[in-house]
Design goal:
alpha+beta, Aminopeptidase, 8 strands, binds coenzyme A, GNAT_dom, transferase, protein-N-terminal-alanine acetyltransferase activity, Ribosomal_N-acetyltransferase, Protein N-acetyltransferase, RimJ/RimL family
């Protein structure tokens, strides 16, 4: 996949180390909005740290353990999605997302995540696709619901963001459920 069209002017495509400068500028621009929910936004502060994150994902891709994509709207990087984890031998993976608030509210993330779940389940034979988010992250919860996922429970104090530990809701959709929920 070189590029997947989400709408007339939006596309989903691989985010790679050569995109580091654009990626870092984008994260600097959206940090205040995504910062409470996305740990990576505090790690990527300049081109070098952006390249390090994208290189880490290229290395994960080479090991078949993760992937990262960007969402470009009218040619400008406006957000992204990732397989934060991808465990083909166990048949499980987790999707993460973020978006510039200027691009929110148009279904771009829901569309992109549907493509990713389709690929994970139908092409890669995944049994379970997870979505983890803070119980306070209403917009992320709304995406999980729109994707037809089921809330399984809450992992308490599961991960730190900017030094503060967060609870994580765990949502999932199973391969057997996906055809009727997508
Ligand atoms: C989570 C986040 C990516 C969700 O973005 P979003 O724009 O709300 O989600 P979508 O792109 O799927 O858009 C959904 C909205 O578009 C509308 N929409 C329009 N056309 C649509 C379509 N074809 N399909 C789905 N939704 C559509 C929906 O009704 C919804 O509108 P609403 O905001 O009025 O309820 C965004 O809020 C964000 O970046 N938050 C900060 C980072 C973050 O929390 N990431 C997740 C961590 S777990």
């Amino acid at each position: 996949m070189l590029s997947l069209r989400l709408t007339d002017d939006a596309e989903l495509r691989a985010l790679e180390p050569w995109n580091a400068e654009e990626f870092a500028a984008h994260i600097n621009h959206v940090r205040e909005y995504i910062g409470p929910w996305i740990g990576m936004s505090h790690v990527v502060t300049d081109t070098e740290s952006g390249r390090a994150v994208l290189q880490r994902y290229i290395d994960k891709l080479a090991r078949d353990e993760g992937r990262i994509y960007g969402i470009w709207v009218a040619g400008k990087l406006m957000g992204g999605t990732l397989f934060r984890t991808f465990d083909a031998s166990n048949g499980t993976c987790e999707i993460g997302v973020w978006l510039d608030p200027d691009a929110a509210g148009h279904g771009l993330i829901t569309r992109a995540a549907r493509h990713m779940i389709d690929w994970a389940v139908c092409v890669r034979g995944m049994s379970r696709v997870e979505w983890r988010c803070s119980p306070e992250n209403e917009r992320s919860i709304a995406v999980a619901q729109r994707l037809g996922m089921t809330l399984e429970g809450v992992l308490r104090s599961e991960y730190p963001i900017n030094g503060t530990r967060q609870d994580a809701q765990v949502w999932s959709v199973l391969a057997s459920e996906w055809p009727s929920r997508k």
